[in-house]
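Running low. Any example?
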Amino acid sequence: MVDVRGLVRKNILRLKPYSSARDEFDGNAAVFLDANENAYGSPLNRESGYHRYPDPHQRLLKQRLSQLYGAPAEKIFLGNGSDEAIDLLMRVFGEPGRESILIMPPTYGMYEVCANINDLSVEKAPLTPEFDIDFKALEEHLKPNVKLIFICSPNNPTGNTFPAEDIERIVRNFSGIVVVDEAYIDFAPQKTVLPLIDKYSNLVILRTFSKAWGSARIRLGIAFGDAGVISFLNKIKMPYNVSGLTQEVALQLLKKRDRKDEYIQKILRQRRRLSDELRKLAIVQEVFPSDANFILVRFKDAKKIFDYLMEQGIIVRDRSSQIHCENCLRITVGTEQENDRLLSVLKTTEDNS
C-alpha cells in the first residue's frame, strides 16, 4: 500500500480547516441562532428551508450512495461536479511550480486546464493510434515529479474503456495517485474498476450524476477512494460545496434507479443503431467502438460536415485537433427522433457530395 499521507503537500498537512456552524452542531434544536441565517425564511417560500445552510458533509446522501455502490461513506467525497474533485486532488497532492500530472491524450481537457490553474506541469503519454494505453510512452513520461496520473475510462472523446488489468498495472507500479474518471461507466458497468479501491490506497475513482443519471444541471460529482485521501479532500473543500437543493434532487433521483436504467438501455439501443447507420455512409471513414453515450466518427472531411450540421441546427463536437483524431467528430447519442434528424441531414450531405 502506498503511504498516501507522505504524498500530501506539507501546507495541507498543517492546514486547520474552517469550522462552519453546521460542523459544530449536529442534532435537533428548536431555535437556530448560530449561522447568521435569515430567521424569517426565503421570500420565495418561507417554509422551504432555503434559508438554512445544507449539511456540509452530505451525510444522508452519502449513506444512500454507500448502499448503492457498496463503498463505506468515509470512502465517498461529493463535489460540485467531478471537476471539483479533480481540482482538489491537484491541490492536495501537487506542489505548484514543482510537480506534475500525467495524462494520456486524446482525453478529457479539464485535467490539463486544472493543472494549469494549479501551476502544475503536464506530462503527456499519448495513447496508441488504436486508442490503447502505450506503456512505453507512459514509462518515458513518468518523471520523478509526477504526482498524479489521470485515466478517463470510458475515455472521452474516444469512447473506449481500458482493460482493468492495464489500469491495475499502472496503479500497482506507481507511487503517486491514480485517478480513474468513470463518468461514462454506467453505459458499460461490467468494466468498472471501483472494487480496486479496497486494494489500493493510491486509487481514486470519479463518477458523476451528469451523464447516465441525466442530471448535469444539479452539478454533483463523486470521488471514491481510500478514507485517508477522502479526508484530505473534505479538509480543503469549501464548507458548503454541495447545495441543499442538489442533495435533495440527488436523493430523489436515487429512488428512480429503474427509470435511469431504462434510459440507459434506450441509449445503448440507439448507439448500436446510430453506429450501424453511420457505417453505411460513404462520407464516413470509420466509426469507433464505444462504451459511452457518444460515438467518435472519422469523416472524409469533418470540417465540412461539422459546418453543414451546424447550419441545419445540429451541434456536435469537432475533435479533429486532438492527437489521432484527425477528421473526427464526437456525436452524442440522442433520442430516436434526434438521431433520425441527424442521419437524414448526413444523407443529404452525402447526396450533395
Residues 4-256 form a domain with the Aspartate Aminotransferase; domain 2 fold (CATH 3.40.640.10). The radius of gyration is 22 Å.
